[in-house]
User: Fold this.
Amino acid sequence: MSSREKRPKLAVKLAGVELKNPVMPASGTFGSGKEYEAYLDLEKLGMIVTKGVADRPWKGNPTPRVAETHGGMLNSVGLQNPGIEHFLREDLPFLQSRNTKTMVNIAGRSIEEYVRVVTALQRQPVDFLELNISCPNIKEGGVAFGTDADMAYQVTKKVKAAATQPLIVKLSPNVTDIGAVARACEAGGADGISLINTLLGMKIDIKTRRPLLANTFGGLSGPAIKPVALRMVYQAAKEVKIPIIGIGGISTWEDALEFILAGAAAVQVGTANFRNPRVMLQIIEGLENYLRTENIDGIEELIGAGHELQEGIQC
Ligand SMILES: Cc1cc2nc3c(=O)[nH]c(=O)nc-3n(C[C@H](O)[C@H](O)[C@H](O)COP(=O)(O)O)c2cc1C
Assistant:
């Protein structure tokens, strides 16, 4: 086999840990992996990301809590989950039995709640922690941790002090200056950041003339949010040195590649899994074909490559 025919390298390093490839599910859209095993070989994924896990069971919000929109969906599920004890007993043994990396997404309504989950995971076979700072801080009147740079710094710092695994902080897009929040997380000791979580939105039922979601507002996800997510990843990549995981509306390999060019070392696929549970495998295959056709040895060469041209332009 000549070097031209060599298989291109899809593996990427994230905070010192090597992943088979840069593609993984987005939290909350893939259960704990078990639910999807009938549709795809989980071991082909770069990593499995769990739904949010809190220190005890959360009931979630009242229904209706999902609605379709043009090019996406709204959800106000409210991070319903059975809590860390259940996760350790029922889900982790399954994840451990599969040959791929595991990232546990962590939910909390106070710094203490986040720290309790992270502490319970200290000696567990988990490769990464993903801290969801879009949760409301009950001690600050329900303002989401991730919407304030100082709160983002504080929660990152305290959680990092308790963590034994690399800590990825997942940012909220519902801010005016994503760069400031990204910098705050890096200063707090994050090993990486992931973005974006859902954008706050709503829908009104014109028959009842009332908000359709019982919670009034919900998080918008899916292809409709991709340009916003891509812009934020691009901006964050200019501000921090830690690795970035790009999320938001990714449903094709071309979308994934755009995020990598914007500066993401890996990508997460969320809402697209609901339409096509095999979509992540198609994305992995598409990226590999692209590298082969373009004669590129490894995907890591492309991380942030979309910035280079612009840096040369003087206005
Ligand atoms: C039904 C649903 C549940 C979600 N649950 C979580 C969660 O538990 N933790 C979290 O950090 N993000 C959660 N998210 C946000 C996604 O992980 C992702 O950031 C967002 O949907 C944008 O990506 P997408 O457009 O590819 O779906 C959820 C999204 C959806 C649609």
Observations:
- Residues 279-294 form the longest helix (16 residues).
- The chain has one domain: 3-306.
- DSSP finds nine helices and 18 strands in the chain.
- The longest strand covers residues 101-106.
